[in-house]
Design a protein that fits this description.
It is a single chain. 15% of the residues lie in helices and 40% in strands. By secondary structure, it is α+β, with helices and mostly antiparallel strands. The protein has a single domain, classed as outer membrane lipoprotein receptor (LolB), chain A, CATH 2.50.20.10.
Length: 231
């Protein structure tokens, strides 16, 4: 399925590859990249998504605090984490309970505070996925999905996205976009294998003006951390 595995961090290096639920929780954020604003069918939905996209692209950065709930309906299990992400062009910093990921558009640092370890990898310039081109989050919606405006309320719009590929693992992506600010309130991602990921945003901020140092792991500030350089 295009987009769900677009985050290319070495999960063995992070020490979480043996935890499928944790893997699902971390990859949540990067499914946004290829899936969360795609569509071609409903013109009113496209108008809303275009406005949402333009506002984010023109902001100095996009920062979001979130609660992420992953439910496996087949196994009747669930997991919840909190996190924070800030995006500035093709740079990002993602903070999760067990690790922090920095990307400065050239290098990726995966930092595990508990293990006092950071793994460095090089971005692939030919790769258009979120890992290497975060700005695609706000432009990829023009292809790959049909969409439908499900509900209009005074404070929000509910939009469903359906994959054009009949063999896709995705059943539906559902977004709630706030009014009049055009902020992302929630996102629900449902797969055929019974996995449902729901993301609730407690903050959606377009006002921060972070310096480039925010997106770089500084070894001098973490002198006791082991560096695994895989570039």
């Amino acid at each position: 399925m295009p987009g769900f595995y677009c985050f290319g961090t070495d999960f063995e290096a992070t020490g979480i590859n043996n935890n499928p639920m944790k893997l699902s929780l971390i990859t949540f954020f990067f499914l946004i990249v290829s899936n969360f604003v795609s569509g071609q069918s409903d013109q009113e939905a496209i108008r809303i998504l275009d406005g949402f996209s333009a506002k984010a692209v023109n902001a100095p950065s996009v920062s979001m605090k979130f609660n992420l709930i992953t439910v496996n309906e087949m196994e009747n299990t669930s997991d919840t984490i909190q996190g924070f992400v800030i995006l500035k062009g093709d740079k990002y910093r993602l903070e999760l309970p067990d690790n922090i990921i920095f990307f400065d558009s050239e290098n990726i640092w995966t930092y595990l505070p508990a293990e006092k370890e950071v793994t460095i990898t090089k971005a692939d310039k030919e790769d258009e996925s979120f890992q290497n081109k975060p700005s695609s989050i706000f432009s990829i919606y023009k292809t790959g999905y049909k969409n439908r405006l499900i509900e209009e309320k005074p404070v929000s719009s509910l939009i469903d996205l359906y994959p054009e590929d009949v063999d896709s693992d995705v059943i539906r992506v559902r977004l709630m976009i706030g009014k009049p600010a055009l902020n992302l309130i929630s996102l629900e991602y449902k797969r055929r294998d019974g996995i449902k990921v729901t993301l609730y945003f407690s903050e959606y901020d377009l006002r921060q003006k972070p310096g480039n140092e925010v997106f770089v792991f500084r070894k001098e500030n973490h002198k006791d951390v082991e560096v695994i350089d895989m570039r």
